[in-house]
Amino acid sequence: MKEQPFIIGITGGSGSGKTTFIHQLKTTFSEEELCVVSQDDYYKPRGEQQSDEKGVKNFDLPTSIYREELFRDLKLLRSGKTVEREEYTFNNETKDAKMLTFRPCPIIIVEGLFVFHYQEIFDLFDLRIFLDAKDNLKVIRRIKRDRVERNYPLDDVLYRYEHHVMPTFERYILPYKSCSDIIVNNNDDFEKGLLVVSGFMNHYLSKKK
């Protein structure tokens, strides 16, 4: 029986630096060594999202994600099968969605806001990493990202951060910080944390050769 991959879960609040951290890891390892699956590509379409009391769609809830499909695809990857899925573009009409291909690798990273909250996915992880940062830094990063990358109006970004993002972080993400194996501080930068994680991954891969 083929050996199963080593699966790493990475979570943290919005603006904690998960995407940048993982991008740096991807530049260090080849596509044959590392596969990255993002929870973001499993968002339900806008029409299926819950609205708050003011009628604003709330994309920051565990129910915003096709949880079963994410779990299904991770099990397929773990069993050595390739998975294809259309990229989620966050309702950005200026961006064309592309087809993503996830191939089985010795190491699989699964990242997202709720990947620790979903118990069946949490149980798949061999290593759990929490990206941490101060709240004021996270909101600044969120504003920059949503204004530039997703073309959201500033008032909308600020409203969502106060009424959706922060309550979700406190309820569905922060409680799992104590369950994490590694906590990476990203107030200034995450270089030391990146060295620790990449060093561990290199050591794991060297044992497989």
What would you note in describing this structure?
This protein is α/β, with parallel strands linked by helices. The protein has one domain: P-loop containing nucleotide triphosphate hydrolases (Rossmann fold, 3-Layer(aba) Sandwich). It has helices at 18-28, 67-78, 119-122, 135-148, 154-173, 191-208, and strands at 6-12, 34-38, 83-86, 99-102, 107-111, 127-132, 182-185.
Layout: helices, strands, pairs:
Blueprint: E1 6-12, H1 18-28, E2 34-38, H2 67-78, E3 83-86, E4 99-102, E5 107-111, H3 119-122, E6 127-132, H4 135-148, H5 154-173, E7 182-185, H6 191-208
Describe the structure in brief.
This protein is of the alpha/beta class. 38% of the residues lie in helices and 17% in strands.
Keywords:
single chain; 209 residues; alpha/beta; Rossmann fold; five-stranded parallel beta sheet; two-stranded antiparallel sheet; 38% helix; globular
> Biggest β-sheet: count, sense, barrel?
5 strands, parallel
Tell me the name of the CATH homologous superfamily: P-loop containing nucleotide triphosphate hydrolases
The CATH architecture designation is 3-Layer(aba) Sandwich
pLDDT under 50 segments (min length 5)? none
Q: For the terminal residues, how far apart are their CA atoms?
A: 17 Å
CATH topology: Rossmann fold
How many alpha or pi helices?
6
Reading side by side through the largest sheet, how are the strands ordered?
2-5-1-6-7
Mean pLDDT across all amino acids: 91
Overall geometry comes to globular
Radius of gyration: 17 Å
The tally of structural domains comes to 1
Indicate the CATH class. Answer: Alpha Beta
Which structural class do the helices and strands define? alpha/beta
Strand and helix order: EHEHEEEHEHHEH
Count of β-strands: 7
Beta-strand fraction estimate: 15-25%
Q: Could you estimate the helical fraction of the residues in percent? A: 25-40%
